[in-house]
Automatic annotation (TrEMBL):
Pfam families: GAD-like (PF08887), T6SS_Tdi1_C (PF08906)
Domain GAD-related: 6-90
InterPro entries (alphabetical): GAD-rel, T6SS_Tdi1_C
Source organism: Pedobacter lusitanus
Record-annotated T6SS immunity protein Tdi1 C-terminal domain positions: 118-185
Listed name of the protein: GAD-like domain protein
Amino acid sequence: MELTRFLEKYQPGDTEVVSEELVDKYAHILPASIITLWRTKGLGKYNDGLIEVINPDDFQDTLERTLGRKALNYVPIAISGFGDLFYYRKLTVTDEDVCLFDPHYNQVETCVWSLVDFFNGYLCDDDIIAEVLRKDLFNASLKKAGGLKKNEIYFFVPALALGGSENIEHVQKGNCQTHLSILFQSWSAKS
């Protein structure tokens, strides 16, 4: 399997193999490596939810609202335990990248220029795990608030954008789409 390094570092937990209907919907956009991951290991939580491989349909509206437009070749693929949304972009027939939308600071950045490198490199990099995925805070949140269910994340109250801090005392958990919507509304109100 092409995503071997990712699967050595990230153990699937509560995952579900996808339907062929979902595969057919995205097979013309997404690389074969993620389709294989969907078919063999499935969508869901990896390493207790440090990263969640998501159903794009559940997050497409969130992505489009964030970007302010429809993006036909942009596909949400994963979400961190703290709600950072990773999405794949098929830029041309041969060019691709994976971007990160940080909802806490309303920022988008390109992570890496290949989906395979995203899974096998970016997500396996110890600095990324520590800083972007906030592993220590994630582990403390897991202990304090319990495990995450499908489409649940840990978040900060008050939100970081509203003066909150990345501190275990400010962590709660809840539905990802609901929290992302609240953050989006707070960013829209500031504009």
